[in-house]
Amino acid sequence: MCIQVALFDLDGTLADSLPLIKHTYRRVFDEMGIPWGNEDVMRWIGRPIVDIARHFAGERAEEFIQRYQHHYHRDHDRYTRLFPGTLEMLQNLRTKGIQLGIVTSKGKTGAWRTVNFTGLDRYIDVMITAHDVEKHKPLPDPILKAMEILHAQPHRTVYVGDSHFDIQAGRAAGTKTLGVTWGITVREELERLKPDGLLDCWGDLEQYLKGGRIWELKQWLKVTEKALKGNYD
Asked: What is the distance between the alpha carbons of residues 67 and 151, in angstroms, rounded to a whole number?
């Protein structure tokens, strides 16, 4: 497999920022008296804040956004970390000559704060945020824009994310798609979306890019184990 470009979602994929996002939304919902339904709210993660605000706050969307931005930036550094091995993984891909990018539905200010704070800025060649395109995931536009900037071909590009929006956007853009199992979406739901593969750790990505038998064997064992478990339950 000859992948030349690896694009990543940010929150829940590279950055362990979901605790920050959930904390921030809880504060905003409490302050505005909006009923909190954890599953409903968190399933919107991966969409632009404008869409989320309009959906949950209606005519008070602008107030929702302002409150969110206030709490998010105040508590950002306290709650934001990278998932283990992320910088090492990016460094390894860079040494192999693979171009790297981030495609996120987060706004430009928040995205760059996370990228600069965590050290991701040293490795990425392009970042597309909610402010850089008019149409957002699950539509393919942000991924297509990143590929355009990098002069990348879809069949030479992989998009890695943790949500159904990511898998849908990557598929619509014509890229290979990989889902990570440590983010917002559980493995079973990711499997139903039928990405090209699932990653349980960053080491799985290296095996996938090699296209090696270790990757294929590991995927086969997971499917077989699940099938056997189902037969004996």
From this structure: 38
- Is the same domain home to 150 and 68? no
- Within 8 A by CB and 6+ apart from 33, the residues are none
Q: What single-letter DSSP state applies at residue 100?
A: E
9 tagged catalytic:
yes
Per-residue pLDDT tens digits for 92-119: 999 999 999 999 999 999 999 999 999 9
d(CA 1, CA 166): 21
Q: What is the pLDDT of residues 210-222, one digit of tens each?
A: 875 555 556 656 6
Helix (H) or strand (E) holding 226: helix 213-232
**Choice among 9, 16, 132, 141 that is catalytic:** 9
Q: What is the pLDDT of residues 155-205, one digit of tens each?
A: 999 999 999 999 999 999 999 999 999 998 989 999 999 999 999 999 999
Range of the domain at 220: 5-16+82-232
